[in-house]
Amino acid sequence: MDPITLIITSLATFVQIYLYLLIARVLLSWFPNINWMNPPFSILSQLTDPYLNIFRSIIPPLGGIDLSPILGFLLLQVLQGALVRIPYMI
């Protein structure tokens, strides 16, 4: 495997792991009694909130429902799809 393919595959894997973290963050946000200051939750929040805040500035919460993760998921899915196809184009 050449170095460029290795880098692209690693980036695609990172995006996939980050998608899993976002899914966990969204699912946990449905439980209002979670203390986001506890260590496992604070780490998850610190990893995902900066990315989601970009989309929260574009789409404010509507009626208490945060729709920003939808845009975040969409962008990451497009990025991952592009990364997966690049090695076949080289």
UniProtKB/TrEMBL annotation:
One of the Pfam families matching this protein, by short name: CCB3_YggT
An annotated GO cellular component of this protein is: membrane
Protein's UniProt keywords contain Transmembrane: yes
| First and last residue of the signal peptide | none
Q: Which residues cross the membrane?
A: 7-31
InterPro entries with a match to the protein in the record: CCB3/YggT
Q: Does the keyword Transmembrane helix apply?
A: yes
Keywords, A to Z, come to:
Membrane, Transmembrane, Transmembrane helix
The family classification in the record reads: Belongs to the YggT family.
Q: What is this protein called?
A: YggT family protein
The organism's taxonomic lineage, starting at the top: Bacteria, Bacillati, Cyanobacteriota, Cyanophyceae, Acaryochloridales
